Amino acid sequence: MFGIGGGELIIILLIAFIFIGPDKFPSLAKSFGKGLKSFKDTSSEIKKTIYEEMKDTDLDKINVVTDLQDEIKKAKEGLNPINKDLNKTIEDVFNDKKS
Q1: N or C: at which end does the chain have fewer Cβ atoms within 10 angstroms?
Q2: Residues with Cβ < 8 Å from 28, sequence gap 6 or more?
Q3: What residues contact 20, with CB distance under 8 A and at least 6 apart?
Q4: What are the domain boundaries of the chain?
Q5: Angle 11-13-15 (CA atoms, 0-180°, nearest 5)?
Q6: What is the pLDDT of residues 53-82, one digit of tens each?
Q7: How far apart are CA 91 and CA 97, in angstroms?
């Protein structure tokens, strides 16, 4: 937790206990615990939201790329007969010039 070891945490708690006093320390510790839990819950919710947004965005990009690839394939298939006819016409023109 924040790079603090167990021994260091005990020393910090003892110092807080001495300065705050035994009557207010339990309520302060309870408030600190609630605040820490709230912080953890909020940070996990933010992480979850960010992950979901990234996941949705990446899937949308993948779907767009896949759709574009499908459209390109369809366009190529549509151009194949035109390309064959064009090649035949070019061959015929060159064959006529050779003759």
Answers
A1: C
A2: 16, 20
A3: 28
A4: 6-98
A5: 70
A6: 777 666 666 677 777 778 877 777 777 676
A7: 10
Cβ-based burial of 20 (10 A; exposed 0-12, middle 13-18, buried ≥19): middle
H or E segment and range at residue 60: helix 25-98
Q: What is the pLDDT of residues 3-21, one digit of tens each?
A: 778 788 788 888 888 888 8
CA distance 73 to 75: 5
Q: What is the pLDDT of residue 65?
A: 73
User: Could you give the CA distance from residue 29 to residue 45 in angstroms, rounded to a whole number?
Assistant: 24
Q: CA Rg, the chain, in Å?
A: 36
Distance CA 87, CA 99 (A): 18
Tally of CB atoms within 10 A around 84: 10
Number of other residues whose CB lies within 10 A of the CB of residue 28: 13
Structure tokens at 11: 């020393």
Neighbours of 25 (CB within 10 A): 15
